[in-house]
Amino acid sequence: MEIKAEVKSIENLKDFFFIVPDYQREYVWKADEHVTRFLQDISNEFKPNVPKQSNYFIGSTIIVKRTDGKYDVVDGQQRLTTIVISLCAIRSSLQKLNIEANPQKIIKEELLKIVKELLYKFDISSLKYTTRLFLQYEESKNYLEALITETEFEDSITTPSIKKMQDAFTTVLGFLEDFEKDSITTLIGFVSYFLTNVEMVIIMPDNIGSALKIFETINERGVGLNAMDLLKNLLFSNANSTDFETIKKTWKEILETIRACGKEEKPLRFLRYFLMARYHDGILREDDIYKWMISDEGKSKVNYSSKPVVFSEELKAAAKKYAAFIKATHATDADDLYPPITGIGYLSKKTSRQHLVLLMALKEKIDNAIINRLASNIESLVFYYSVNRTLTKSYEEKFANWAIKLRAVNTSEQLNVFLEEDLKKELTEQQAKFNAQFATKSQSDLNPQYRIKYILGKLEEYIRNKVNFPSANYAFYQSLQLEHILPQAGINIPSEQYPQVFDYANTVYRFGNLTLLEAPINQSLNFYNDLSSDEWFNGKKNAYLNSNVIITRTFSDVKIGEQTQFNGFASARLKPFNEWNMTTIAERQEVIRKLALEVWKMEV
Question: How far is CA 595 from CA 461, 484, 599, in A?
């Protein structure tokens, strides 16, 4: 099976004459759904008055060359038909523009020439138009041909397909009118973007049988192809026919594995992280995956052409590891296999996936102890990223570059080299920012609440470990309530302590004013809101003694019997308080800062 695949802009579609065979499905795109989304997605990428625009990939089309030089469309006719309808609407919009002054008038005329060339070719010898896209299926009734050639069409002929094409044309016209209302320059800019920056992949198998085989295999769901589907297409095109069933089965297992992770997990996202982790050097966007795969670099690195079955098996194994990492990220309690990854999920939000690029870069059969040690150090780094409010974009490229180095790690000693040479430097810089900024951090800086509870719970677990107290699980800490020691609903607030209007509100939500508390105890404190005397705080401290949470109990000068190990730790690292105000809250925040540096550090 021979197959060609080329990336083409809409302007370059003038190289083809497309025929949609009569066995194809009729036009089914809905104007208010599919067509609108098609236009909106393109519009989102278009930036008015920006000289250099980014390209936008809209999918793929499978075509087979006919004996007359035209091409049968095996897959992608909905998208192609919508493109042609859009070109007809663009032509209509440009023709209506009343432009007198150059150079805009010249630009308009040149764009019109290009659009007309994309719609049809006029044969001088036969004095007939040959449309670039011809629909053979019965439902079309030659409507599109009439629209393209601007000839009369019998209005009484209506089919569901024709009605959808008419609605699509009207929708595109309205979309273009909105651009024109902004300015003629904006409209012309969008038309230019549509023609030159909107791209699709044209897939050209050697015959219709091959094309239908590919279509049947990789397009079972009856939807457009994406980079994941196209990669499968590449595997089939390079495999022996005897391997088709193996690849098909393997691919089904890959998709089932990813979908089992949850509805928010997409196979394309998995493919992106897999390639960044194992093969691509640097950041790879979803829109660029297929173009990279068919590039010389992609072919050479991935080597799917000579060993398609081997590569599909590698993808399957990686999908299983990816699913295991996702499960650990989403876990409520520490995951059985990868407990540090659960911590990463709490710290960076459960929807975060950047850590997967680093973890998946490790070889498939590498020991779980190495994976967990890397994950533990990533968790430390992610803690500081979260507290410092570091944007994902600022370390995305760093993670992509680190993945290149992690591919070579086979042993614990090799991981140590990476940690010392790369991660340690970044961790040290983030710790410096943390030290400089943490004194002013508030609840809003560290939300959502599950992250705050995880941080306080992790500090609690560190203390328990140091003094040989029994551990609790993550679910326990998530079940506790977030207690504001200085009450949120305080009354009779002393003005000498909180002189400015927002002093009290700002202080209540400082991180040093937060602790964890069991719900029954917390509910018993609802009446400790009167700040006119110190009794409110003494009452809370006495109630805190009933808590099982050490960092809450130690607000009092508490000692636990003859527990000298605990008492020594509490005296050296924790701090009791006899009053509670802006100053003491700042002091407790400093206690938390020091503990956090001990908890989230580099482990070698």
Answer: 11, 20, 6
**Nearest-angstrom CA–CA distance, 475 and 148:** 64
Mean pLDDT calculated for residue range 376-398: 94
Element (H, E) at 7: strand 3-9
Which residue reads 């550090």 in tokens? 601
Where do we find the tokens 């003629």?
184
Beta strands 133-135 and 18-20, pairing class: parallel
State residue 190's pLDDT score. Answer: 93
Structure tokens, 190: 């969008």
CA–centroid distance for 285 within its chain: 10
| 130: alpha, beta or left? (left if phi > 0; alpha if psi -120 to 50) | beta
Place of tokens 């040989």: 468
CB atoms near residue 457 (< 10 Å): 22
Whether residue 344 contacts residue 375, with contact meaning beta carbons closer than 8 Å, is answered with yes
The answer to whether the pTM exceeds 0.85 is no
d(CA 304, CA 290): 13
Dist. CA 574–CA 467, nearest whole Å:
13
Closest to 420 in 3D by CA, of 412, 432, 369, 277: 412
Q: Which two tokens stand for residue 244?
A: 């088709």
The model's confidence at residue 560, banded by pLDDT at 50, 70 and 90, is: low
**Contact residues for 159 (Cβ-Cβ < 8 A; gap 6+):** 26, 139, 140, 141
